[in-house]
Amino acid sequence: MALPALREELHLMPGANLPDGQPAWTLHDPVRNRYYKIDWTTLVILQRWWLDDVNEIIDAVDTDTTLHIEAADVERVQTFITENELVQRIGDDNARKMADRLASMQGTVFNWLIHHYLFFRVPLVRPDRWLGRMLPLAEFFFSRKFFLATLVAFGVGMFEVARNWDVFSSSLMDTFNLAGLLSYGVTLVAVKVFHELGHAFSAKRFGCRVPAMGVAFLVMMPMAYTDTNDTWRLTDRMERMRVATAGIATELMIASWATLAWALLPDGALRSSAFFLATASWIATIAINASPFMRFDGYFVLSDYLDMPNLHERSFAMARWHLREVLFDLREDKPEHFARRKEVAMILFAWAVWIYRLALFLGIAVLVYHFFVKAVGILLFVIEIGWFVLKPLKQEIMAWKLRWPVIAVRSRSRRTAIIVGLIVVLAFVPWPSRVGVSGILKPGDTLPIFAPKAARLEMVPPAEGTVVAAGDQILKLVAPELVSRREGIKEKVERLRWQAAAAGLDTDSRVRLQSMQVELATAEAELAGVDEELSLYSPKAPWPGVVRDVDPDLHVGQWIGNKERIAILVKRGGWVVETYLDEEEVKRVKVGDTGRFSTDGGAGPSLHLKVVGVDADATRVLPNAMLAAIHGGHVIVREKNNQVIPEQAMYRVTLAVEDDPTSLSAQAWRGRVAINGTWEVPGWRYIRNALAIVVRESGM
Question: Which is nearest to 673 in space by CA: 342, 416, 435, 426?
Fold first, then answer.
């Protein structure tokens, strides 16, 4: 059978050696500007392709070289050149075949739209000639002198930033507004232009052609790009690395000089511009370009450093092979053979890329949803999840389906099925739930003892920790002005009583009797009010309790200020634990549920609790800041008008202490509360939340 003829314009060039040391060559397709790395076996077969017969090629290779090939090797090469359109199309039906192949590659109109929504490029300029003319001017920025000057600028700039960190950080916080974000957007565009010029000039310095520069859209997110495919003609991988790192190096240089400018310039527009340029360059370089998880500069630098083209695809293949072996023990050949440490590194790298991309594309999908019309946003969200999450899963499941005859007979497959079944059962069978939060152990009733107004201490309160009975007087205060007022009112009451008693002795008194009785009643009421107010200066225990927080320096005759607290009376027994639960947690708790409390420091015993109250309304202000996350608690809060406001709806739950917390009763304690909630299906919580989001966002 005749073999397809190779295209005549293909160009073969020497390439860098493969990682195992064997020589390699680069095959260039100038029409599509693509490069293919081939090994020695592929080279010797292609060199004898003109023989146009499989057996003759095998005989020629066996005769002329030390290699021994088989028909499968020739068929592999034929598949490679055919799939990559490296052969001539001859025949009457050539146009039809090419049209069919194009249609097969593009798929349906829907697939074409999805692909071009997810990623497409828009070439804007063909800069090759301009780069050649400007290269002599750009050489200065590649010189050793400029590199050393940039290092000095970096060192001085960072030193000044460290010295003025408060000013620098406050400037950064001040940019988090609409004007600042717009300035960052404009600055980022400028930085990215210089970034791509760094790639372009670096490639041009090594004699490579730069056919296009433009904008690429990844899920509608624009990013600049430069076509540097021609660098694959470079045999020195360090030269390819210099081209790959040129963009990052350019941004770091811009950031260094801009940081120095910010440190030296006076306040004004120029200094603000330098600040935006410095921060935008640092953030764009570290957060975006240096990442090896997407096909940005960091990925190509890592690929060239490891001398592993198509690093993502090769690591993905290793990870998929490893996953199948772990799950099913298929005993298939590895996609590639590496040292054990390198193999493990590639598998871990693949999983890191998958997790990173999942988080990234989910985040982009959420942004797309919020920035588009709701119906369009939901559609685009579904497309992204389907393309980046569900499609890879489907492809892997299809690969398992093809291997099902082998999977079905492996003992490890049965073990995997049992484990998966157990996980499903555990996820969808009711289990006793437990709610773990922070809480405050405190007495159920307390009575603060304070001076109603400024007064003199006549009897000091009992010592700290003294147990008092109901009705015992705790202290005595004297307010001379109030005592003097009482004496005056008492004298008035006694006088009016005497006058009322003697009213029958003369005619004038009998006429004034009714008015005197009214005046007497008023005076007696006033006296009762003063006596009631005086009782506040001699408080008595309303129930048995323990005196706490007594100032040991109190003494008789000391003046106490208005509303000044003197002590606290803590009721004996009746201790409670108070905590706050969010909407999801409070659904799993009801009155009567049990729990336990242990202090943060581990002091005292673990106490048995019982839920005695669950508030129906959410609290608007957190009364006890000890439960705030900023102070070590679990409630996420923000401060507003000197109040601690929960960031989400929180419901107060009160639990009675069933043990005697004698060793802990000296004060309030913060600790961990574990409440044994109702039985619940673990998986149902996530299903319920997902359904709630769908219902809410769809407007049902």
Answer: 435
Encoded amino acid at 204, one letter: K
Domain with 637, as residue range(s), is 574-680
pLDDT for the residue numbered 205: 92
| Mean pLDDT taken over the chain | 82
End-to-end CA distance of the chain: 65
3-state class of 632 per DSSP?
Answer: coil
Q: What is the pLDDT of residues 352-376, one digit of tens each?
A: 998 888 887 777 767 766 666 666 6
Q: 495 and 347 share a domain?
A: no
Which amino acid, residue 93? Answer: D
Q: Is the domain of 91 the same as that of 120?
A: no
What are the tens digits of pLDDT across the range 299-358?
A: 888 887 887 777 888 899 999 999 999 999 998 888 888 889 999 999 999 999 988 888
Q: Which two tokens stand for residue 131?
A: 């780069």
Helix ranges (DSSP H) in 457-579 = 480-501, 507-511, 513-535
User: What average pLDDT score do residues 106-132 get?
Assistant: 70
Q: Is the CB of residue 235 less than 8 Å from the CB of residue 15? A: yes
Helices 128-138 & 178-205 angle (0-180, nearest 10): 90
Contact 307, 16 (CB under 8 A): yes
Does residue 479 belong to any structural domain of this protein? yes
Same domain flag for 232 and 115:
yes
CA distance 680 to 430: 5
Could you tell me the sign of the dihedral formed by the alpha carbons of 127, 131, 132, 133, in that order?
positive
Q: Give me the percent of the chain exceeding a pLDDT of 70.
A: 84
Whether the CA torsion 632, 633, 637, 638 is positive or negative: it is negative
Same domain, 184 and 300: yes
The conformation of residue 389, written as its DSSP 8-state character, comes to I
What strand order describes the sheet that includes 559-560? 476-478, 455-459, 559-560
Q: In 139-177, which ranges are continuous DSSP H helix? A: 144-163, 165-174
Instruction: Work out how many domains the chain is built from and give that number.
Output: 5
**Rounded-to-integer distance, Cα 455 and Cα 223, Å:** 75
Nearest-CA neighbor of 457 among 530, 551, 544? Answer: 551
Measuring CA to CA, which residue among 658, 670, 604 is closest to residue 441?
A: 670
| Dist CA 277 CA 274 (whole Å) | 5
User: DSSP string covering 543-554, please?
Assistant: SSEEEES--TT-
Decide if 114 contacts 217 (C-beta within 8 A).
Answer: no
Radius of gyration of the chain (CA): 42
Cα(71)–Cα(194) distance, integer angstroms: 51
The two structure tokens encoding residue 207: 């004699």
Cα separation, 366 vs 383, whole angstroms? 12
